[in-house]
Write a structure and sequence with these properties.
The protein is α/β, with parallel strands linked by helices. The protein has a single domain, classed as Spore Coat Polysaccharide Biosynthesis Protein SpsA, Chain A, CATH 3.90.550. About 40% of the residues lie in helices and about 20% in strands. It has an eight-stranded mixed beta sheet with strand order 3-2-1-4-7-6-8-5, sandwiched between helices. Helix 3 links the parallel strand 2 and strand 3. The radius of gyration is 17 Å and the shape is globular. It starts with a strand and ends in a 12-residue tail after the last helix. About 45% of the residues are buried.
Amino acid sequence: MKKKASVIIPTLNEEKLVERLLKQFNVDFRKKYEIELIVSDGGSDDNTIAICDRYADKVVTKDNNRSQNISQGRNEGARQSQGDVLIFLNADVTIDDPDHLISRSVEAIREKKCSAIACRVEVHEAERKFSDVLFHGFYNRYVSFLNKVYIGMGRGECHIMSREAFDKAGGYNEKLAAGEDFDLYNRLRKTGKVEYRNDFLVYESPRRYRKYGYARIILDWNKNAYSVFFLNRSISKSWDPVR
C-alpha cells in the first residue's frame, strides 16, 4: 500500500546514536501515520546496518567501494521510497514531539500549504551548554529570516518537502561536499513556499561542536554557503564525519 510519507535517514557508522531515532518510528507509529522508514547507508563498517535492519522497512546499502556523500545517500533513499511527503532526518537527531511533527508536516505538505518545511534545531537540555543556547538561538532566527525574505534555507538535520517539489528541484546536488542543505532549499523556494516552523523541534548531537568549536564550524558553514550561493560549488572537498 502506498504510504503518505517516507522518513529517510542517511547513515555512516552511526551505531552509537541511530537507534535513539529509529525507536521513535516503531511499527505502531508508522501504521498510525501511514509512513515508511528507510535507511540509506553510505558504507558503514560498524554495527549500523545490523541495528537499522531491526527497525527500518528498508535498508539501502551501497553496491560499490566508492565513497558516498550525504547528498548521494539522501537521493538514493528518495529513489527507493514511495511517500508523497519526504522527511529527511540525520542519524544523530531525535524529535521532541514525533506525533506533532509528523502529523502536522504531512498535513501541511499534502494540503499544499507549502512545498517544504524548515525546522527548529537545538541541543537537548541533557547535553546543552550555554554556547549551544547562544548559537542555536541565533541560528534558528537566521534560518527563519532567510525564508521570510525568500532565500530558502533549512538545517540539514531535518528536511521536509513534497516529492513533487523534490523532483522539480532535482534533489540534492551530489557534487557538493557541504552546503547541500542550503543549496536544495534555495532551489525548493522556486517550486513554492518554504515555511519555517518553530514548533517543529529536533535535537541534534553536539559532537561536532564539542570537537571543533563553534567558531570554526560557523566559518566553515558560511564559506560553503556563500560559495554554493554565488559559485554553485562548495569550498570543502569533503565533510569529515565525527563519531
